[in-house]
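Before a colleague's protein record goes any further, I have to sign it off. I want your independent view on whether this chain really folds as the tokens say. The record follows directly below this note.
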Amino acid sequence: MNRLILFLPLVVLAFVFYACHESIENDFTLIGNNPLAGQTAINAAESQLNVVQLVNSSKEQTTFAKAIKAAELVDVLSDDGPFTLFVPVNAAFDKLPAGTVSNLLQLENKTKLQELLHYHVTNSSLNLNFFKDGQRIGMLNGVNIEVHLKNNKVYINDAQIIASIPAVNGIVHVIDGVLIPSK
């Protein structure tokens, strides 16, 4: 009888551990086979998307999506945040001098690309109603952007915010220009 009393709690504990383990594994779906791939490996099909997933889901932001990947910022921006991303549309990148984007995407220019992309990100979630005319906001690269309000439209430096999409870890403001940090 004493053995049964000692053995029973072990059986119950083993059952609880097994049940909890199964529950954790079934809470999310991994993409690929790497269980240590980080936040980007979680399939968010049943939940709100993070800022990187939002950018990747848009046909109008493929250049920015490629840049995030080339700069190795996908995992960082997929984290909890909060982040505000000012994401230029593809047409905004087309306005840059010829060869600028392809040059920045080269491995030897990763630091320059990261600097440019960090000028498009701040580490807080800023909704449209937060912005005030003349406001200055510090970006991840340490340089400030300036907010302008013109005809009830919000501009970041000279780029107009044309759409705003909330994400699980912040917000994406789609802009019509590439933000270039002043030197």
Q: What stands out?
A: Confidence is low (pLDDT under 50) at residues 10-46. The CA atoms of residues 7 and 63 lie 61 Å apart.
